[in-house]
Design the sequence.
């Protein structure tokens, strides 16, 4: 019976749906995290009677035909790049992007990764780095005798130096945007890599053209909506149960056929 296989594909699809939802809920407090959404497609069809075929010598046409579906499959898991809520931390090295764009980070391999996580620190050489110690690009060095740091919405970094009246500019933060940010490859640690699907990065200064602005002392929270995720979880659970009932019903029907023999 086809229904056994169809029900099994439905259960597998809803299991993946629950996996995606659980990932979203697990990262509801992860800085800069973008929620995921599973997408599903129906499987190929068996054409017992193809629509549009002739049904008699007189040339009459079958209006609908007879097609039997074979179930469902996962087509992809998409990243939803909506703006997360901005949360004030008052830490001068906490930065949020209000709008489009990603921070550029240099990995130990020399590759450039991209992130919305703006939790930065200063390493032993005065360089701005992520929590994992990866360098922010372009590199910015904070003078050892700096007593204060200011970063404006355009990404210009200023340091207050001892015994100096005016702030000294020490660097410029750049952002990157992509034609298809959903095509970036997630590698963990809030980092993403460029792929052919994402397209090449377009780099520029914050608060210019289509780039977002920088907000100092603020972090971007996850864009996960907990109420929506719980609702989706309940729907996925009920769909899983209904597919399991299809398998149970098919099994009972087969059992009845076996008893007739």
Sequence:
């Amino acid at each position: 019976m086809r229904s056994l296989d169809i029900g099994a594909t439905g259960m597998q699809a809803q299991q993946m749906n629950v996996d995606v939802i659980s990932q979203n809920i697990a990262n509801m407090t992860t800085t800069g995290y973008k929620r995921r959404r599973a997408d599903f497609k129906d499987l190929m069809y068996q054409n017992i009677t193809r629509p549009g075929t002739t049904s008699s010598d007189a040339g009459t046409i079958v209006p609908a035909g007879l097609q039997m579906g074979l179930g469902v499959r996962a087509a992809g898991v998409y990243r939803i790049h909506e703006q997360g809520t901005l949360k004030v931390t008052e830490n001068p090295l906490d930065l949020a992007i209000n709008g489009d764009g990603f921070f550029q980070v240099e990995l130990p391999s020399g590759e450039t990764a991209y992130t919305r996580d703006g939790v930065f620190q200063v390493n032993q050489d005065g360089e701005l780095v992520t929590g994992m110690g990866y360098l922010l690009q372009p590199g910015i060095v904070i003078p050892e005798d700096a007593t204060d740091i200011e970063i404006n919405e355009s990404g210009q970094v200023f340091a207050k130096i001892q015994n100096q009246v005016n702030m000294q500019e020490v660097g410029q933060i750049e952002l990157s945007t992509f034609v298809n940010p959903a095509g970036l490859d997630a590698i963990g640690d809030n980092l993403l890599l460029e792929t052919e699907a994402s397209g090449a990065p377009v780099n520029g200064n914050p608060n210019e053209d289509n780039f977002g602005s920088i907000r100092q002392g603020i972090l971007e929270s996850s864009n996960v909506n907990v109420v929506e995720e719980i609702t989706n979880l309940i729907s996925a659970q009920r769909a899983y149960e209904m597919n399991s009932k299809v398998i149970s019903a098919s099994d009972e029907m087969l059992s009845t056929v076996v008893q007739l023999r």
Notes: The two ends are 17 Å apart (CA to CA).
